[in-house]
Amino acid sequence: MSQKIVLNELHRQATIMEADSFESGLSFLEIFSFDLILLDIDIPGGKGKFMIERIRQRQPNVVILICSAADEQIHALEYISVGANGYLSKAASKEDVIAALTIVVKNKRYVSLAVQERLLDAVSATHRTAKKLKAHELSGREQEVMQMLIKGKWVKEIASQLNLQSNTVSTYKARIFEKMGVTSIVELAKKAQQMGHA
Questions:
Q1: Residue 68 and residue 86 in contact, taking contact as beta carbons nearer than 8 Å
Q2: Any idea what the Cα angle at residue 192 is, between residues 157 and 182, rounded to 5°?
Q3: How far apart are CA 64 and CA 85, in angstroms?
Q4: Host H or E run for residue 86
Q5: What is the crossing angle of helices 155-162 and 140-150, to 10°?
Q6: CATH numbers and ranges of domains, the chain
Q7: Which among 94, 95, 68 has a CA at the least distance from the CA of 80?
Q8: Which residues does the record list as 4-aspartylphosphate (modified residue) (predicted)?
Q9: Residue-wise pLDDT tens digits, 168-191
Q10: Could you give the angle at which helices 185-194 and 166-180 cross, rounded to 10 degrees?
Q11: What share of the chain is helix, strand, coil (3-state, %, to 5)?
């Protein structure tokens, strides 16, 4: 479905201009003020992400929607990160084209559901990695208490050996469990062994 056709359907009073090269498009920006630019990253004379910067230099507030046959899974977030308002595959359905145009003209970001899922997967992976690294955040005292817990010592024993109050050791224990993502001494021992802390 042609984005131009859908744009005409959504905004019948809109004036639509087409450029056959990137430099030609830039010359339009010197003369006319635009609300929306549909930018093909494969346009003749274009230079990838640098096109966004050159457009913004001329019209900082214009909405830029990338429309491309290039793999959105690879390029979408790359272009969004440098200032594009959205990324739309040329193979997108009419419904997706309508959604993209409707969203970006409100100055919101648009990417397809597939790209959103990839982004969420990346966030989840980062979260899992962060949880694995939390053991490195244990203080020296927490490391000490953890080793004693793993060896089977009771809170009162640990308190006595470290010259601490029992409630202080209990607080350390709770922090260690939280940071290590465990709920029992058995889980703590396994996790510590996996991470080289036991």
A1: no
A2: 80
A3: 5
A4: strand 86-89
A5: 130
A6: 3-111 (3.40.50.2300), 132-194 (1.10.10.10)
A7: 68
A8: 40
A9: 999 999 999 988 888 989 888 888
A10: 50
A11: 60, 10, 35
